[in-house]
Structure formats: structure tokens, C-alpha cells
Amino acid sequence: MADKVAFELVSPARLLFAGEVDMVVVPGSEGDFGVLPNHSPLISLVRPGVIAVHEGGKVGSRIFVAGGFAEVTPDRCTVLAEEAVNLADFDRAKAEARLTAARAKVAEAETEADKAAAQRAVSIAEALLAAAA
Amino acid sequence: MPSLKDLRIRISSVKSTQKITAAMKMVAASKLKRAQEQAEAARPYAERMERMLGSLAAAVGGSAGAPKLLSGTGASNVHLLVVVTADRGLCGGFNGQVVRGARNLVNRLKAEGKEVKILCVGRKGRDGLKRDFASLIVDTIEGLTKREIRFDAADAIGTRVAGMFADGEFDVCTVVYNRFKSAIAQEFTAQQLIPFPPPPAPAAEDEAKAGQPQAVYEFEPEEEAILADLLPRNLGVQLYRSLLESYAGEQGARMAAMDNATRNAGEMIGRLTLNYNRTRQATITREMIEIVSGAEAV
Predict the structure, then answer these.
(1) How confident is the model at residue B202 (pLDDT cuts 50, 70, 90)?
(2) What is the ipTM of this complex?
(3) How far B122 CA lies from chain A's nearest CA (Å)?
(4) d(Cα B58, Cα B206) in Å, to the nearest integer?
(5) Which of A95, A114, B17, B296 is disulfide-compatible with A109, CB 3.0–4.6 A?
């Protein structure tokens, strides 16, 4: 043990990633943090951004998450994502359509709550496009 | 004694019923496979979330500032039951099992002098509970299983339940549903959602196993901020899980029920055919006797 982190990424629909990796960089709400083995226990909110999984000295895969929660213990790191997209199979047209749709929702939102929710969808879509750029 | 024509009509009607039940069985079997995969895929998230919430609750637990969704209102006078059933019947005892369980629970709570409110998810639950507890049913949500069950839908129910809780409409919330055990078995389950039940055995087991106290977590941002986000989401997640489990269970139950029906129809056809042949033979014999005795008389 102790030289690998057991990293798990789960969304409500499925388990997206599970495996032993060297390091994970998670976009925490207060700033990105890297998780190496023997990290101190931590629970953090996750903002929309990219999780970088480091394996063998280079970035193995980059996965976009639309916010969620991360739990870190000395030997494992679990990220509960609201939604996750592996940037390897990212579809620009789809993401752009999503941004347009989200913007339209903001424009037609009537109540404050609706507007806030739509605004959030816009920022997630923007973050997704920025991440893929 | 039914005439030959009556028997023929019976046989053909049972045959077409058998075709329908056989088709329903196959549809349920293919839906079951997808539903089961979905339900199993959703389990890790719900489990991790429970674990995380457990450690958070342990850290915050007991302090006065703990959010109400976690610690409850301190009272337990009004109970909200979320009853998850199927929208459609023809699935054996599946809906009956949930309704019966819910009814027992309501009666028990009433006997303890509590007030009960019911939120039905799925049409059959409402139909079953309407007779006894029409005044307790707050609302019915149906049509969720028409297409693929989406997390948003479950989250919307969660938000609504959280809203009702914030308005002080109830103190304790429990969801009752059929948990998918295998293709032929479902298990009635009642799970308390609000207040968040204290973490059960696993935590104690971990501690005993490692012989070390629970790790002290750092929080980013503070516990309260995380909890404010995590608790409503947990509601959605747990409801989502119960919906998926229930849907998979429904398909399993329907498959088993339709399999039985198909087999029964087959047996019935066999019996009717035998009966038909005997009747036909009896008619022929009788006619021959009539001819022979007529010829002898001449």
C-alpha cells in the first residue's frame, strides 16, 4: 500500500472510474487539490471542473465533473459527481448545444429559483467547454 | 354439458390470452435486464453517499447547530410515508406487498397516536391505500416509469419533500418500497430518510476491525456548508435508488406472474381440448347408435 491511491468516481447513474492511481487532482470548491497516498482525511465540495488522474508520471485521463463531493482518506479518494464526462469522448457540438439551451432557459426563467438553477446550468456548460478547449 | 361450439370458442379465447401473457412475459424479461443493470449501477453512489454522510454526521452530530434535515425537529408527531409502487398492475403480489406493508405501518403509527401523511409515487399505491386512508394522501406522482427513470425526476421529489419538511409539515420521513433481491424475489423495505438515521453496523465494524478511532476529517468549506448541499442531494439519491429498485422489482414480479399465467393457460387449453375431443367422440358414437338402431328397426 501507500504508494497508490484507490480512486473512485461515481455518478448517480453508474460507477465511472475505479482503480489504483498515482495521484488525482480534484477541483475543490476552495481550489484544486492533489491527492497523493496518505493524504489527510478530507471532505470537500467539488466545483465544476476537470479531474486529472495521474498514472505513471503523466496524466492518464481527464474527466469533467459538474460539481459534487469528494471524500479523501489516507488510502482512498472517492468523488461523488453530479455528472461526469470523460474528455476523451467529448462532443463539442453537443456541449455547445447544451450551453445555448441553458442560456435560453435563463432568458425565459420566471422565478428567482428557476433563474438561479438555469444560471448554474449555464456555468456548468461553460466550464465544460472551457475544460475541453 | 357445453356444446362443441362453446368449447371451440373457449379454447380460442384462452389461446389468445396465452399469447398476450407470453408476450408480456418477454417484454418484462427484456425490461428487467435493463432495469436491473440500472439499479445495480446506482448502488455504489448511494452507498458512498451514505458513508460520507455517516462520517459527516459523526463529526457534526449532537451539536446544536446541526441542520434539521440531519438531526430532525426533535419531535416525531407527524410522519410522512413515501410509498413507491408501480404504475401498472398485472405483476402478481408486487403492489399488494407494498400496500400491505404501508398499511401496517400507518396503523402502527396511528396506534401510537402519531399523525400520518402519505405521498404516493406510482398509481397502484394510491389505488390500494385510497380506500382506507384517502384523507391522509397528500399527493400522487405517477408516470415516472413510462420512460427511463432519470435522476432529475427523483431529485425533484427530493426537493419537494425537503420543502415540505422546511415548512414544518412533518417530522419524520420514511420511504417504503420493494427492494430488488433477485428476478423472482422482492423485499419490502422501509427506509428512514429524515432525520438521517445514525450510521448502522458498518461504522462500528470498521472501528472494531482496525481498532482505531474514526478518522478526523478536515472540511472544505465548513461542515455546515457541505451538509447544506449534501443533505438535500442525499434525499434525491436515496429516492432515486428506491425508484430504480422498485422498477426492477416490478419487472421481475411481472415476469414471474406472466410466466405463471402462460403456464396456467397452457394447462387450461389441454383440459379444454380433452373435453372437446371427448364431447365430439360422444356425439359421433351417439349418431352411429341412432343409425344402427334405425336400420335394425326396419
Answers:
(1) very low
(2) 0.78
(3) 21
(4) 14
(5) A114
